[in-house]
């Protein structure tokens, strides 16, 4: 397992993150965590809203300091209480305290904002998160499921006001769902953020074997069937599992992307880890992407066209390179 820095921090995180949302059995969960750690993995991701997920993780987690333990807040703790959800200071404080008790720890290494709350000012969220960092209950922060402009504004405010900036971003990202390429991935790269790509297997659609048992072929769209077939064809050519090809594709798109994988058992985790050395040939990437076309849309496509236009950038439009 190789490591990268978490955003613009000194924290080392493994190239594959382990999501614990699906943990149900304590014994199997402990086996999965041990196998992940033995392979060099060190990021465990949970959330306040994952049922009894935090409680279970806290009960089986050994060698606590060996892991980068991450959880999330925002989602409702009590549907009848209007202040038991959202990104405001009250919910942050109460949700964090609840998570710490469940996880049996005095701090989390990363606290993610679970989703953008349009009713809470960003200034309040940034200040409350920074206070949690200053109190030692949180070491680093990240944000999930938010528009690029929201993340960019939040980090700009944090920099101006000497607050803790978001070091990580969580977004859904896979061959079938590439929306993040329009604004979110470029924004994350510009701010030096780490990207945790959730649903990298498209909820099992791009996998095979046990991981796709819950996928009913009859319910798949034509696009999903085409993508599934393309992934399998490349996997057969390379002697790899379809899941490994799907994960390798997400990693091929940007150096800041870390697939966030789940595992129902050690076998599934082993399969994911076994594909970390898989590098897809350029032709394989082209065929995968041709199978399920994606349009960047405006302004990305328009700007790309203009970059080589002498009308826009003069006679040296194609002779200028980056730094």
Automatic annotation (TrEMBL):
<feature type="domain" description="NADP-dependent oxidoreductase">
    <location>
        <begin position="16"/>
        <end position="291"/>
    </location>
</feature>
<dbReference type="InterPro" id="IPR050523">
    <property type="entry name" value="AKR_Detox_Biosynth"/>
</dbReference>
<dbReference type="InterPro" id="IPR036812">
    <property type="entry name" value="NAD(P)_OxRdtase_dom_sf"/>
</dbReference>
<dbReference type="InterPro" id="IPR023210">
    <property type="entry name" value="NADP_OxRdtase_dom"/>
</dbReference>
<dbReference type="InterPro" id="IPR020471">
    <property type="entry name" value="AKR"/>
</dbReference>
<dbReference type="GO" id="GO:0016491">
    <property type="term" value="F:oxidoreductase activity"/>
</dbReference>
<dbReference type="GO" id="GO:0005829">
    <property type="term" value="C:cytosol"/>
</dbReference>
<protein>
    <submittedName>
        <fullName>Aryl-alcohol dehydrogenase-like predicted oxidoreductase</fullName>
    </submittedName>
</protein>
<keyword id="KW-0560">Oxidoreductase</keyword>
<dbReference type="Pfam" id="PF00248">
    <property type="entry name" value="Aldo_ket_red"/>
</dbReference>
């Amino acid at each position: 397992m190789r490591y990268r820095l978490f955003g613009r921090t000194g924290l080392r995180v493994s190239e594959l993150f382990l999501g614990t949302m699906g943990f149900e059995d304590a014994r199997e969960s402990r086996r999965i965590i041990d196998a992940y750690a033995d392979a060099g993995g060190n990021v465990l991701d949970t959330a306040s809203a994952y049922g009894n997920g935090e409680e279970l993780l806290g009960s089986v987690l050994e060698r606590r300091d060996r892991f980068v333990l991450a959880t999330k807040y925002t989602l409702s703790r009590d549907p009848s209480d209007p202040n038991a959800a959202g990104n405001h200071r009250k919910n942050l404080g109460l949700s964090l305290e609840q998570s710490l008790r469940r996880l049996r720890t005095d701090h989390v290494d990363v606290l993610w904002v679970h989703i953008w709350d349009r009713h809470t000012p960003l200034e309040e969220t940034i200040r409350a998160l920074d206070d949690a960092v200053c109190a030692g209950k949180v070491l680093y922060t990240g944000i999930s499921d938010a528009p690029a402009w929201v993340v960019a504004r939040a980090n700009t405010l944090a920099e101006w006001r000497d607050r803790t900036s978001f070091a990580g971003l969580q977004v859904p990202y896979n061959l079938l769902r590439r929306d993040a390429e329009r604004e979110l991935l470029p924004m994350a790269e510009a701010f030096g953020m780490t990207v945790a790509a959730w649903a990298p297997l498209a909820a099992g659609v791009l996998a095979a074997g046990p991981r796709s048992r819950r996928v009913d072929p009859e319910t798949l769209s034509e696009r999903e069937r085409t993508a599934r077939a393309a992934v399998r064809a490349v996997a057969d050519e390379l002697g790899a599992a379809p899941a490994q090809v799907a994960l390798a594709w997400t990693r091929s798109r940007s150096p800041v992307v870390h697939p966030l994988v789940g595992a129902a058992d050690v076998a599934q985790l082993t399969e994911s880890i076994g594909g970390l050395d898989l590098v897809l040939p350029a032709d394989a990437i082209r065929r995968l992407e041709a199978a399920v076309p994606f349009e960047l849309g405006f302004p990305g496509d328009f700007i790309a066209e203009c970059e080589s236009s002498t009308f826009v950038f003069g006679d040296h439009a194609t002779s200028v390179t980056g730094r």
